[in-house]
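Re: [ENG-882] Designed sequences occasionally contain unexpected residues at chain ends

Forwarding the minimal case from QA. Structure tokens:
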């Protein structure tokens, strides 16, 4: 027996995709603010609370972006999230994270749904 297909499924999925797309600029702004807080901190390593905030935001994007048609955004957020996690664990490597987040923000501002990352 064939399973009936919900005729509204694609419409609901498209609506969810559009809703997620509308949140991307705000989320990127929050990531930018978290990066700015980390960069403003004195010393070689930002406060752990600021790093956690940056990590949490990247983690959220990494976990949901691919589901809503932003696969490359999710992949890059995951990659940078892992870098931040390494800084949190090892207390080293922060300088390498800064340009990676900045590049992500610039790329996402151009086209967060792009399938290539430059």
């Amino acid at each position: 027996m064939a399973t009936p297909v919900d005729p509204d499924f694609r419409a609901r999925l498209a609506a969810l995709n559009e809703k997620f797309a509308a949140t991307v600029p705000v989320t990127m702004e929050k990531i930018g603010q978290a990066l700015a807080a980390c960069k403003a901190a004195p010393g070689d390593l930002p406060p752990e609370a600021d790093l956690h905030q940056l990590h949490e935001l990247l983690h959220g994007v990494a976990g949901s972006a691919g589901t809503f048609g932003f696969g490359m955004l999710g992949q890059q957020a995951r990659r940078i999230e892992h870098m931040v996690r390494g800084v949190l664990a090892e207390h080293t490597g922060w300088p390498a994270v800064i340009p990676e987040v900045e590049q992500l923000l610039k790329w996402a501002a151009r086209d967060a749904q792009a399938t290539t990352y430059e």
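QA comment: On inspection the terminal residues look reasonable. The helical segments are 9-40, 48-64, 71-90, 94-111. Proposing we downgrade this to a documentation issue.
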